[in-house]
Amino acid sequence: MNCSKILDMVYEYSGNDHGAEGSMPLFNQIQVWLHTLICPNCMQEIERFEVSKAIMREDFFPPSPCLENSIMAMVEAEETQTETDEAYIIPGGLSTRGWVIAGIVILLSLATAFFGLDFQKLVDETGISFILPAGITIGIVLTTYGAFFIGSHLKELTERFGL
Q1: Which of 18, 55, 111, 159 is least crowded, fewest Cβ atoms below 10 Å from its Cβ?
Q2: pLDDT over 70 for what percent of the chain?
Q3: Higher pLDDT residue, 86 or 2?
């Protein structure tokens, strides 16, 4: 067996971190062992790989005992915040009134698109079959806008309607 196949076999079975070093089948272990007896380059490469794997597993992320305490303190502080706190309001976002006004403008602009002179020319050229895709497009735009509005104001809407 050549060196690349042996190294590929070692790399393939080293990804199985099931806790046991013997996750490689016995026949493959024997093949690797016999090849490393004759090929010092592969033996050195496998040793480097095992050392780097051990470093990545143990020493790559140094232990941080304070991290758990600081995260738990942040979680507790977030739980004690009141629901009326303005931490949930996104600065620069649209108010409910702004969303409603924008929705009305979008609805009016989409509904009046059918009354334009250019639309009549387009329908005359393409036939009545053009109205169905236009209607589906308008429905998708309005549904998407409504979904974004409801999703961004879910808390306010549940409080207002008592849900």
Answers
A1: 18
A2: 80
A3: 2
Say if CB 149 and CB 103 are below 8 A apart.
yes
Asked if pLDDT for residue 17 goes beyond 70, the answer is no
- The better pLDDT of the pair 133, 45 is held by 45
- 43 and 36 Cβ atoms separated by less than 8 Å: yes
CB neighbours of 146 closer than 8 A, spacing ≥ 6? Answer: 103
3-14 and 40-58 helices, crossing angle to 10° = 20
Instruction: Give the whole-angstrom CA distance, residue 63 versus residue 66.
Output: 9
Residue 83, both tokens: 């629901």
CA 117/CA 105 separation, integer angstroms? 20
